[in-house]
Q: What sequence folds into this?
């Protein structure tokens, strides 16, 4: 990333509606790029490149990288900034609606990078998880609270639907924190870098992943209630009392393995 004195995009103001907070700390940028370890042959895509801070470092190692950017005012400036890279491509679109599958094959999976806007981070992660088999790994800057939720285990106050469904597909690594003063404008929350690595062979396999997702969502609908109360409306034909599980437990006490086993019992 260029520093404040040499940044050619210094005149572009962050837009609140896009959740823009531009990273400007060179030390943090270097640490992120080291964590990613980009290589020339990578199928690398960055979500929300913004001013190109991380892009400028990544593209030196991976000249054929692609980016997905919603803010159309940034497009001509990014194109000019990286014009010397003939294989650099920009997709001007909403990442929440973008078909990432078109960029990858099983032989050439995606490596996804992004400083994700806090207001769309959770739905965007769920969207990307649907392409898990086509993704090698993901490195994201997120609100610290979201990273804690992604990495949390049973019994942790941060453990919930996002934890279970992400860990069903990926190994989660909370890498390091990023304080607000590293951004312009400064966000009101701390951030953190997380690495998500989709399993090539999942440790626990649901017979019907869509049913597992429904089960987990229903179980965590009201955290203070027991499984019996939360799951009673899951399906009228299911006999919950016949299950080999204590229905007085709360959703946050069940492990990923228990959720998968429960799903496979309900829907063999």
A:
């Amino acid at each position: 990333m260029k520093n404040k004195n040499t940044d050619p995009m210094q005149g572009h103001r962050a837009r609140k509606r896009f959740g823009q907070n531009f990273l400007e700390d060179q030390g943090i940028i270097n640490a992120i790029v080291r964590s990613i370890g980009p290589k020339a042959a990578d199928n690398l895509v960055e979500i929300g490149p913004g001013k190109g801070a991380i892009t400028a470092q990544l593209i030196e190692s991976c000249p054929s990288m692609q980016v997905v950017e919603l803010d159309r005012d940034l497009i001509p400036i990014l194109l000019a900034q990286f014009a010397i890279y003939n294989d650099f491509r920009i997709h001007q679109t909403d990442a929440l609606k973008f078909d990432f599958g078109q960029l990858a094959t099983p032989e050439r999976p995606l490596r996804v990078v992004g400083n994700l806007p806090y207001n769309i981070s959770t739905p965007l992660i769920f969207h990307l998880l649907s392409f898990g088999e086509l993704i090698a790994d993901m490195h994201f800057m997120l609100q610290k609270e979201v990273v804690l939720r992604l990495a949390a285990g049973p019994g942790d106050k941060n453990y919930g639907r996002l934890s279970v469904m992400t860990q069903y597909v990926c190994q989660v690594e909370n890498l390091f924190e990023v304080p607000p003063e590293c951004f312009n404008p400064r966000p009101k929350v701390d951030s953190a870098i997380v690495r998500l690595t989709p399993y090539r062979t999942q440790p626990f396999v649901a017979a019907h992943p869509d049913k597992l997702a429904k089960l987990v969502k229903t179980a965590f609908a009201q955290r203070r209630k027991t499984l019996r109360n939360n799951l009673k409306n899951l399906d009228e034909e299911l006999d919950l009392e016949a299950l080999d599980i204590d229905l007085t437990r709360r959703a946050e006490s069940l492990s990923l393995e228990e959720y998968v086993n429960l799903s496979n019992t309900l829907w063999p």
Notes: The chain is about 30% helix and 20% strand.
